[in-house]
Structure formats: C-alpha cells, structure tokens
Amino acid sequence: MADSNDSQPGAPVPCAACRGTGQVISNLGGSPSQVPCPWCEGSGTQIPGHDAQAARRAAAA
Ligand SMILES: [Zn+2]
C-alpha cells in the first residue's frame, strides 16, 4: 500500500484567492500593493467557513 497522497479529510487546501501564497495584489488607491490575503489571513491555506467580507467590513468601519 503506497497510496498516502490521496485526498484525505482535513488535509490543508491551498487558498484559491491567493493560490496558496498568502498574499494578494490590491489595486485600491490607484497603485498595486501586496497585502495579506483576507480569505486565508495570509496563511495560504483555505479556512473553511471563513468570511472575507466580514473582515473587510471590520477594516473599513
Ligand atoms: Zn489566500
């Protein structure tokens, strides 16, 4: 048995928004700047049930 790399429940999933880098390019303000990904909070791993919009609302308040 050498099938250890199959999809396992609970395995980390790379964040689709930043492609696992933990950083995204924000064009807010006119000039591109690299910011921590709000979807994975810079971890580069998808966070189940994480609401990026909630974080943006809190930051913009
Ligand atoms: Zn991300």
Biggest pleated sheet: 2 strands, antiparallel
Question: Structural class from helices and strands?
Answer: alpha+beta
Question: Which strands sit side by side, in order, in the main sheet?
Answer: 1-2
- Identify the bound ligands: zinc ion
Q: If you compute it from the alpha carbons, what radius of gyration comes out, rounded to the nearest whole angstrom?
A: 15 Å
Q: What percent of residues are in strands?
A: 5-15%
Please tag this protein with its features.
about 60 residues, two-stranded antiparallel ribbon, 2 strands, about 15% strand, elongated, binds zinc ion
Description:
The chain has one helix and two strands. A two-stranded antiparallel sheet has the order 1-2. β1 and β2 (33-36) form a beta hairpin. With 61 residues, the protein is α+β, with helices and mostly antiparallel strands. It has a domain at 15-46. The mean pLDDT is 83. It binds zinc ion (ZN). Residues 15, 17-18, 22, 37, 39-40, 44 line the site of zinc ion (ZN).
